[in-house]
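--- STAGE predict ---
source: upstream dedup step, 1 unique chain passed
mode: sequence only
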Amino acid sequence: MQFSVTTSTLDKPRVGIRAAGIAHKRKPAAGASALDAARDGEIAALLKAGEMDGEAGSRLLLPGGGSPGNQGKGSALLIGLGAKKDFDARAARKAAQALAAALVERPATSAAIAVADFQPRGKDIAWVVHTLVAAISDAAYRFTPFKGKEKTTPVKLDKIQLCVERKDAEAAKKACTEAAAIATGVNRAKDLGNTPPNVCYPESLADTAREMAKQHKKLKATVLDEKDLEKLGAGAILAVGKGSERPPRLIAMEYSGGKKGDAPVVLVGKGITFDTGGISLKPGAEMDEMKYDMCGAASVFGVIEACCELGLPINVVGVVTSAENMPDGRATRPGDIVTTLSGQTVEILNTDAEGRLVLADALTWVERYKPKAVIDIATLTGACIVALGHQGAAILGNNERLAKSLLAAGEETGDRGWQLPLWPEYQEQLKSNFADMANIGGRPAGTITAACFLSRYTEDYTWAHVDIAGVAWKSGKEKGATGRPVPMLMRYLLDQA
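--- STAGE serialize ---
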């Protein structure tokens, strides 16, 4: 899908659909007014007749027509914006989603959008461009590689022109380039998350990293196999992968967009390509969704893809620590004690708390990069869903400035997070009689104690933990990966750049 910016008014582009906004009480926005003039007052007449009131999320499609000079210039799509006084960022996102849904269900291959019609109070044109591109890309996404006889109706929309005023053109073009790259990264993360676990496993993720490195000159991929991990002493990663026929991998993707020697931002993604719970076996219901336990890793791939597409002028390292957590005669048992790469020992009380184990070794390994900051991303705890539902990710860490930057990035993109405390008192729950720590801290504050566990491996650098258990995928009839938190992370990196 191609997005471009034009300074032409909405009535000029020869496209299949031209989209504009109508505020509550039948008040056309600027783009709709220009369209109305081109269609000889047809829109005003329909509004007067009560065909549309401008209620938030409503829509009206008018077939091609208008004055003789505009014949064949496509249909007009009107989107209800709601009351002007209520048109804030949240309402603008909803309007963008309604617009996107209407566009992708039509047979038209091209569209033009009056961008300013969808601009809420307090937001600039760049924000609107980002919002529209993200909404349309999300609505157009389809995952079809494994469809056989049952074919999915393809989305025909291919080219979208974003109509802006001349004074906004430069900012809009910059935002369009950024937003398109982020959308590419989000789709990469969705594709990896949705791929079935018999096709997506640790070595296949390693192959993906290698292929990406071949495609992008600024990207270098390094893969550590099980022999490398044994030599390294990464006992926690190896412990998780022991029960699977598919051995674990530690994957590093080094994107060199900044100056040589500049400290990189390091992203660490949990890549459990399937999680049965191990010996602490999960219930069978909805276990198929445990293919999504690698969505933290998928988001790292997505961010690196977006950085490469955009040519982001900073250094970023994406590290994926990947394993399958399976029950087997060789699998790690509850009560086993393992030695992590840091030298600290862990009593494994529950083999279904495996994500923090693979992350522990990776968080120790990344010290070699002397990072500016480290952010780990993981579908780590069901407790996160209990606390925050499916609305936001949990953010914790050892640096308030980093946490606040991620929260701000989430608010800006709608990919929101909420900060939880990391008070020292919670560490008490991880005490073990036989090892340096246990891998679980009981039911209370499960998301926090998981982060407390990780914090023991991050004392030497600035670190934040993003628990995406509630936002990484959707269940039910809309089941599928969301690509979150790629938008949040990319907004953070753009702010750093």
